[in-house]
Amino acid sequence: MTHLAQADSTTQRPDRTPRREVSPARPEGAGRDGLPATEVVLSFDDNRLASLVFGQYDQNLAHLERRLGVVVNPNGNHATVKGPRETAEQAGRVLKTLYARAKAGASVTLGEVDGAIEESNIQRSLFPAADVGKASFDAVVTRKRGPVRARNAAQDAYLRQLKRHELVLAEGPAGTGKTWLAVGHAVSLIEQGVVERMILSRPAVEAGERLGFLPGDMREKVDPYLRPIYDALNDFMEARHVERGLQTGMIEIAPLAFMRGRTLSNAVVLLDEAQNATSMQMKMFLTRLGEGSRMIITGDPSQIDLPPGQRSGLVEAVKLLKDVDGVGYARFEEGDVVRHELVRRIVMAYETASRHEREEREERLRNPDSPADFHREGDSEGLKRMLARERPR
Q1: Percent of the chain scored above 70 by pLDDT?
Q2: Distance in angstroms (rounded) separating the CA atoms of residues 185 and 21
Q3: Model confidence at 18, in pLDDT bands (50, 70, 90)?
Q4: Is residue 73 a contact partner of residue 80, using CB atoms and an 8 Å limit?
Q5: pLDDT(207) > 80
Q6: Cα 156 to Cα 137, 142, 150, 237, 347, distances in angstroms
Q7: What stretches of the chain show up as alpha helix (H) in DSSP?
Q8: Diameter of the chain by CA atoms?
Q9: Helix and strand tally (H, E) in the chain?
């Protein structure tokens, strides 16, 4: 149980020494936005759970400070949040949400802090004050991990699509949780008895280099390509259950190239890295869907490893099917990356560079008579022209 109290910044309080200095100097009694500061005081019943909420060396509180622009001073099982009234109250709601999750046995990581912040944004815009603390994001539940809640609105929409449709297409950058949540949903369907087996598939396309022939049987040959799915399986299932499922056929590894002619009934079928499936392979895979089955297709169109000239089956399928009745579609953006804050910045940097290249290419097409700059062309033609100009006559 948490207790919350508010006090105006003019109220006299004992001096406290902050553990971190995270904000620039500002006038006394003013928040970061120049607004009057408010203090929100939280008291937690359990010191151990409070320490889990605060994080090791108070890292969760530091992350909360950076995200919301407030100052949080912990003291035993108490925490004082200081900042503009609206953001200070939001930070208090986030800490209460994290405490409730810790009390339920869930881990409290930096990702959970981000998720609670995103959830509080949704609550603030959709729910009245009386409903603060109400869970708004959807969750997937498995025996090993319990409820795994979405961390942002995109993941929430994705989980809702998975529960509503028999076929779901999901595209977006790396680190947004497309595959991980799909595996968690597949495990939950198995455990609930909705389907009888799980079929995992992936195109056997290397990322920029050729591995040659791999030794072993079929499973051993495709293991390197499906390792990310195995990692997700082990997150949601005990290792012994994964191994038993592989031996009994409840979990099946099926290379995309060998799916032709099959009818997949009473199964949840996951195709990962679908951006590397050709148009022919994608059509073949989509038509395998049988009675009582669910199909999930995930991929990142910005990381296509197909040979030049071959069209991505995922890009084509999204264009053709995303508005078809009964087909779910989820789109993730760069800002939805949850893997690591640095991964989010890396993805956004690459996307910004790619956007600039597209704009320059379109500008050259609109103005073909403009002087050519070989540094901006991005291919060998500019270099060839420069060498031709410098060649002695």
Answers
A1: 75
A2: 41
A3: very low
A4: yes
A5: no
A6: 5, 17, 5, 22, 21
A7: 47-54, 59-68, 85-103, 110-126, 153-164, 178-192, 218-236, 239-248, 279-286, 313-321, 341-366, 374-377, 381-390
A8: 86
A9: 13, 12
